[in-house]
Amino acid sequence: MKVNKIRISKYLADCGLGSRRKCENLVLEGKVTVNGDPVKELFYKVSSQDQVLLEGKPVNPEPKIVIALNKPAGYLSTVKDDFNRKKVTDLLDNDLRLYPVGRLDYNSRGLLIMTNNGYLAYRITHPKFNIPKTYKVKVKGLLSKKDLNKIDKGISIEDREVAIVSTRVTQSSLQSSELMLALVEGRKRIIRRVFKKLGYQLLDLQRTKIGSFCLGDLPEGKYKVLNTRQINQLTSV
Predict the structure, then answer these.
(1) What are phi and psi of 200, to 5 degrees?
(2) Which pTM does this prediction carry?
């Protein structure tokens, strides 16, 4: 039976010891042994059958956990903040050491995936995989057909076209307009910048769907652990 081996730095990162760069430094500093022998080569590979020690203590990969969080407005999509503002990690149980996949800005709300599965996070966020994220957008005033056509045909921000894949107006009046917007990119505050360019005040922004996984009726501020079927929905269209 073929044994799957991975680089020592990735193994250490999977054990929850920090970023790949930090784990590489642990190896270079001579703090890691494999089967009793010190390892300082970054290309060294290990498997689950090896005994890996960090400063004499065994380390083992953490079980992979994926949760869906309904992020409220007023929380940062980060694990630490120098100004002691509220963070999405404050909404989790203390024993969950997970990281947000992509971001929702401070004033936005809705579906946020948090996990310790780096490969899944890469699949969801990298634009080459074309995983759509769907948002419910509310703007002040009547959204004109002319501006909607601009969005549909492709609007540019900083000389780069925004990768919008679909738009659907769900409510329209002189007071406000609502639409569902799906896109396959994650530039910072990109939806807010689109509507600011068109001259609209954005009143609410909620992410409702990633891939084919929907936020559903998950209460705001709450989260749920996803099963295999739900995890697969995150990377399917």
Answers:
(1) -110, 145
(2) 0.83
